[in-house]
Automatic annotation (TrEMBL):
<dbReference type="Pfam" id="PF13592">
    <property type="entry name" value="HTH_33"/>
</dbReference>
<dbReference type="InterPro" id="IPR009057">
    <property type="entry name" value="Homeodomain-like_sf"/>
</dbReference>
<feature type="domain" description="Winged helix-turn helix">
    <location>
        <begin position="78"/>
        <end position="133"/>
    </location>
</feature>
<protein>
    <submittedName>
        <fullName>Transposase</fullName>
    </submittedName>
</protein>
<feature type="compositionally biased region" description="Basic residues">
    <location>
        <begin position="142"/>
        <end position="157"/>
    </location>
</feature>
<dbReference type="InterPro" id="IPR025959">
    <property type="entry name" value="Winged_HTH_dom"/>
</dbReference>
<dbReference type="Pfam" id="PF13384">
    <property type="entry name" value="HTH_23"/>
</dbReference>
<feature type="region of interest" description="Disordered">
    <location>
        <begin position="137"/>
        <end position="157"/>
    </location>
</feature>
Length: 157
């Protein structure tokens, strides 16, 4: 927008490029877009890249299927939705291909966050406390020696 303001004042492209610390090519490009569509054409259109191929109505369908749980869709082992499983579900239901990382970014936008509902059933609190109090004390690395010292490895005190 500053470049357009300077163009409107009649300033030359090389001077604008120098003042704004951009290339002359950028200023030429902005001038072309501005002449074709006005200032509105220069407004940011958001981040680049393609939009999520699952629109709001498809995301709503996916959310209802996720609420049904993995067993309803063929996973009988552990009842946890993973990004890989959700990716497979999207492929089966919508015939769309997406990456596991893309699904990992989609789920939080939909409000879905994987957190354990309860602690693991196999955890033995007494054994964990015993290990922490006895075994860890024996195997943990020694701390720093008390006294004055230097943070430098090459310059000792």
């Amino acid at each position: 927008m500053r470049a357009v303001g300077l163009l409107e004042k009649g300033m030359k492209v090389p001077c604008i490029a120098r003042e704004l610390r951009v290339s002359e090519k950028s200023v030429h490009q902005w001038r072309r877009v501005w002449k074709a569509g006005g200032r509105e054409a220069l407004r940011s259109k958001g981040s680049s890249g393609y939009d999520c191929r699952l629109g709001p109505h498809l995301q709503a369908k996916l959310a209802t299927w996720l609420e049904e749980g993995p067993a309803a869709h063929g996973w009988v082992g552990d009842q946890v939705w993973t990004a890989s499983r959700v990716r497979t579900l999207i492929g089966r239901k919508f015939h769309l291909s997406c990456s596991v990382s893309g699904v990992g970014r989609l789920l939080p936008r939909m409000g879905s966050v994987q957190v354990p509902a309860r602690p693991t059933a196999e955890r033995d609190e007494e054994a964990a406390a015993m290990w922490r109090d006895v075994t860890w004390q024996e195997v943990k690395p020694a701390g720093r020696r008390p006294g004055h010292g230097s943070a430098s490895r090459t310059k000792r005190v």
